[in-house]
Amino acid sequence: MLIIPAIDIRAGKCVRLFQGDYGKETVYGEDPVAIAQRWISQGAPF
After folding, report:
1. Domain segments of the chain as ranges
2. Residue pLDDT, tens place only, 6-41
3. What is the 3-state secondary structure of the chain?
């Protein structure tokens, strides 16, 4: 199985929206580049 990570960026932060609702946002990180670099270091394709 190939898992391809995805990232949403809003206001410069990594976020996830619940059913596309901007009022139900969860922030997963302040630095999208650092998150992407971590995924690459863990073997994610890019």
Report:
1. 8-41
2. 888 999 999 998 888 989 999 999 999 999 899 899
3. CCCCCCCEEECCEEEEEECCEEEEEEEEECCHHHHHHHHHHCCCCC
